[in-house]
Amino acid sequence: MNQSTAVVAVRNVTKRFPGVVANADVSLDFNPGEVHVLLGENGAGKSTLIGMLAGMQQPDEGEILIGGQAVKIASPRHSLELGIGTVFQHVLLVPSLTVIENLMLGGSWWQRLARGAALKRFRELSGLLGVEIDPDAQVGRLSLGEQQQVEIMRALWRGEKVLILDEPTSMLTPQGVRDLGAVMKRLRDKGVALILITHKLVEAYAFGDRISVLRLGRVVGEIAPDRLKAMTEKQVTDTVIQMMFGTVEAHARDAEILTGRGRAAHRDRAVDRSGAARLQVRDVGTEAERGACPLRSVSFDLWPGEVLGIAGVDGNGQKHLAEVLAGQRHASGGKIEIGGIDVTADGVPERRKHGVRYVTDERLGEGTVGAFSVATNLVLKEIGVAPFWKRGISDWNLIHDHARTQIKRNDIRTPSEKIPVGRLSGGNIQKVLLARELNAEASVAVFNKPTYGLDLQNTRLAHDRILASAESGMAIVVISTDLDELLELSDRIAVMYQGHLAGIVENGPDVERKVGMLMTGAQKDAA
Amino acid sequence: MSAEVETLPGPLPGGDRLKEIGAAAARVLIPVLLALIMGGIILLILGKDPLAYYGYVAKRGLLTWGGLQETFTRMAPLLLIASGLIVAFRAGIWNLGGDGQFLLGAVITSAVAPLLVGSLPDLIVLPFCMLLSIATGALWSVVPAILKARYGINEIITSMMMSFLGTSFANVLIKLFFWDPATTVPQTRTLPVDDRLPRLFGSTVHAGVLIALAVIILVHLMMTRTAFGLKLQVVGANPAAAVHAGLNVAWLTVATFAISAGLIGLAGSVEILGVFGTVRADWNPAYGLLVVPLVFLARFNGYGTIGFVFFFSALMIGGDSAARRVGVPQHFVLVLVALLLIFLAVVEYLDHLRRKKVR
Amino acid sequence: MEGLLTQPFLTALLFGAVTAGVPLLLAGLGEQISEKAGVLNIGIEGMMLFGAYTGFVAAFYTGSFTLGFLAGGVGGAVVASIVMLLCIRFGLNQIVIGIAVTIGFEGLTALLHYFQFSRTYPRLDAAPVIALPGLSQIPVLGPGLFSHNAVVYLAVILVGVFTWMFRSTYVGLNLESAGNKPAALDAAGVSVIKTRALAVLSTGFLAGLGGAYMANVGAGLFVPMMTGGAGFIGIVLAMLARGKPLWVLLGAALFGASLSMTTALQVAGVNVPTDVVQMLPFAMVMLVLVIFARHSVLPPALGLPYVRGDRG
User: Fold this and answer.
1) For this UniProt entry, which segments traverse the membrane (chain C) (predicted)?
2) What domains can you pick out in chain C, each with its CATH number?
């Protein structure tokens, strides 16, 4: 590592949280004019590392060097003053303020709002990034891609030395990803040190000049720029997998998920569409609350054993689709039939009786009650129903017995069924949800982002459960923003765009291009 | 501190049962002790002897037969209000409009009971009046309930507004409709002492205390052992999860408000049928907010609440006498309650920090 | 009845409306700052009451109304600092602490008053009045609206100042962000905790000032529990005003008018129980809430403590 060129470097940094070591003895250099990719799965310690660079956390051991000097980054403000700008995974803009107001945020209270100077800087950065945004537009009304551009501007606002991007492509369309790539190149050529955090190998190869691989809090390997340039994508893939798992073969499935290249093997079943469809959706629409995207006349059929993937950029009505299918949102028009029975007017309990199941993406937000026990959460959707309740009286013994069985059967890692579910890890909470939803009576299952935030092992488990359910004859809808995941699981892929089903395409060769076009709003004829 | 309480039967795993009980006792006793000490310091600053004050309060509220009877009697309305609050708080609903619901319940009972006792047997009149007061309290909660259920309007504000409205409306009712023509001061007709709730075992304690005890135990069992109670708790702990699980949140919200306000209305009724027999204009014991800390202190547990209500009743009865004898106004009890609430929150916060560290 | 439309009656009505409305205006403006920053300040009633007490005591012993008002504001801010420490710094439940603060200072002020004055209620002299040149000469309106204590004009000026502050200063941006997306403010390098702390202290000062005005100008004396729910009305005003100070002013004026009506009708000898009139403002709020229910929007982060690293 060349000491003299690095603008920012971390040296032997260790950060512990109760029960885990998030970063262990990490040393990295970040050079100007270079895109440095930090690659690793969820929980590898990437977020903790940038949290320390952004001043949100302090390292327990080791130091951070800025221009060769050891610096204690005490706060987000300090980090910004040092010229380190961070774009976090979740949008950190105030939706009710305008673009320029958001960018001005952070001035000292005794100063007057320096709108003129701010606009000047805004135009400067617009030029640098090559983007055009109305500075007086309310941020809540911008597209997610535009919001991200505003975030990049804010990160660069007080100096364009270092820019950290945390999983920046997760909410973008393929076009948005290309635009982002262009922005990164421009910035790199201007001498900015870019740090790109991702769990996708494809992105690392496409955008990175240097790749560092993290696993379980440690740096397990690095590919320097000269070497990276000389390698093919296949070679990079093999090298990274070697770094992460020791061998290329041992963790074939993990590697597949990491590279998004594993689907072909699993989708060789043909769906029998000669019989009656299990789920029929006709012209279903919903009403939107402020700022949400409603459904507009969505129609599709789904046969037993079939997996329909729903692709699209977040916020195009996917959530409403899931909720209207589950029965927890009222359809303002249209018709939903299950096995030929009209269930449009039914709520969640009635739909459950028809075998409808919904695994939500908000596992703690709505899927479970964090403060309640695992046992209670396992019967959350059957409160008052026999055999756990008789005449409205709870049979706690039976509920706990049931929980113990489920815990064993689904390998839910918890000390006891009485532990509040909120104390479990994300993967185990997902297991609780899967155990609750996927029982023998299930016939139609909706999965919303089933692997969001899970590590490789739990991602693999969830994928296996979904495929096994399809195998057993369930009709399945999988909503995801991760196209690779849909390619692996789906028989057909539909794209949601602004509340419409922009088109449905068979999973197969060339499907990525078709889906990509549909995601940007190109019309149905694209497919 | 939040409404996230789920009571499961049986011991918690991963630890010594005794240890758990000890920790729970500490969580409760430490705030009480701190509040008493802090209150004592305030008394010292004001030039009063805290030991003399507390000693007198204990003697008058607990250690004399007369005082103890008064303490038990005072428990009746407090327990019923506490039951109402437990239902609401466990369902995550801040019904802070207790005073209005209590007074209207009291006024309706005091208006109706004296008219009926002549023509109907007490065994019919008294329960009828209680039901009427329950309905009145529930009715008074309908607007905040619907505003909360349909539009998500903060029920703290609306229930308080309805409470102010209710206290004034109670006076209007007395002055315009139920004024006893035989009195010069505006008040309702008086229910004859013989027709009131029967006294227990030759004491001055009336049967309303038993009703209140039964109600709070039933409420506790309802919340912990029935589907309805669990549904309410789900709504309280995570409304989004309630929607997700297909619960009718709007209906449950209205039901919660109705039960809560109804029980508080019943408290007003029982206080009239058991103790006063009449309501005078401008009478307002303002129990509504005072019971809130007790319910919190017991972590919404019905049995625990009984203990705290007893403690607090003794404090009130003793404090009333101390106002005359020791020269410390009964307002001091308000200060104690506030200190209790603050220390409770702080202790729970520290406990939370400690647990986080252990994990 | 014919006495209702006489000049003195109307003047008294207007004058009373202003006197009753100003504490509500100050409380409402104060609560608005807290709510904007994402803090539901239920303890404002306690802040007003303590402000009323400290304001009165200071004015009583020094004879200076200016010092009285200042002491009232400081008193309110002292109470607010409890909320600041427990709710903003420690993240404790804002509703529980709010209730505690209100109950506690109801009790404490009554207690202090008792030990200070026993059961007597000494009065202050009439508060100094500034008659606005020209305007105060207008019949009825002049003496009704334009001959008041300086605090009244200050409160009205604050409406303009706050409107400007919310829209075109960093303070405004920071407050808005703290209530709408605290994590964004944090990422921009501004402390959410400090922003909210400042907001709560300002609320306390304004509420205390309102309480002091109530005691020193409105009543001329201190009586335990004298605020009688004014703080809660302030909360409602702030809720309905949706971040617009001018709407707080309008709401306070309406409330002030109906409170003033209570006294005015009594003076005029109209035979309606005062309770009926006392119900008016509350009934009006409920009515407004029922009618405009869909439109009262609160900041998404209201009432939630900010913990760095939590999403939102």
Assistant:
1) 6-27, 39-61, 67-88, 95-115, 145-166, 197-215, 221-240, 247-270
2) 2-119+135-295 (1.10.3470)
